User: Fold Pentatricopeptide repeat-containing protein, mitochondrial from Iris pallida.
Amino acid sequence: MSSSLRHLLLLRRRGSAAAAAAAVLSPSDPSAVLSAKQKSRAALSLLKSESDPERILSICRSADLHPSSHLDRHSLSLAITNLSKTNSTSSIQTLVSSLLLQRRDAKSLSHAIVLFGQAGMLDSALSAFTSSPPSTKNLNSLLFAAILAKDHPSVERFFRMFPDVEPDVDTYNVVVKSFSESGSTRSAYSLLDEMRKKNIEPNTTTFNTMISGFYRENKLDEVDKVIDLMRRKYNSQPGLSTYNERIMSLCKLKRSKEAKGLFDEMVRKKMKMNPVTYSHLIVGFCKEGDLEEAKRFYGEMKKKGLVAGSSCYFSLIHYLCQGEDFEAALGVCNEMMERNWVPCFATMKLLVKGLAKIGKGEEASEIVGKMKERFPGNAEMWKEVEEGLPK
Assistant:
């Protein structure tokens, strides 16, 4: 981290968000001028703990955020989330409108529509959409905005409102997603008929979304129908993403043994699994209390050299601690820390106390030392934990 960026975050910790935002915009020291990427990172760090609407706007203005940057999209979304928590509708309008005024490009308009949807301001999203010649991309953004606003009736309303805009497969996929999330997945069949008439070929996303919806509605027979439809009518064989979608959905329904059956089917077909496949099964079996099966899949994933996302490891260590398998939890913890991934304080505290309970006080103390060093802000909390350990 650069010295200028460290200075910004230090200002924030001292409670001077306004000063930090000003420093991003116009630092007094010419050598402290931040690059665009540094500005984006600084803005994201500041926004993570900011709730005051004026300071949020100041940070966003200072960093000159633009939706072409992944970091900036994250920052803008976080700003909208924080402003929504305080019902700051006027500040949201100001932030998104300024984005449209400063950046008169297609990317900004499309993202502005989505941000209004995230805030639940569909009237503003619709106004932004109609402020320029309608396009398929912006229609897709408007439909997605309605999903974010959890206003599923408006998805179909907007979809039919602009007949002159030619839909593409992404347009239909957003509508299918709305049907899937609102418990109306069967309605997607009529969309498939409509797509065929328009010579628009459904893709894997179309079918996976339908499958996810039917699982959510506990209509497993319909899942089989979709798989059959893929093969018979569209000459499409279910690939890795479809299997992962099915495994995830079954695990969410606490039917991990059935998900394992699909995994075994993949093995028979000599399909190559990815970390996502294992992650769903590990977390699924953890949630159902079958820690042995979760550990087995974890071990198999390791042997294959695959690395899941951090949330999989966090879940595994949490459930291992809950099941009082502290030695296994310690092994997972050590692997996580090598990757600079650390679970929440509550889970780590549970692990430390559990290790002390089974006579591994040295390992417990070592973890406490690492936590105090890595997170000095939590040093007092860890000191209390340390004092409670057996001497």
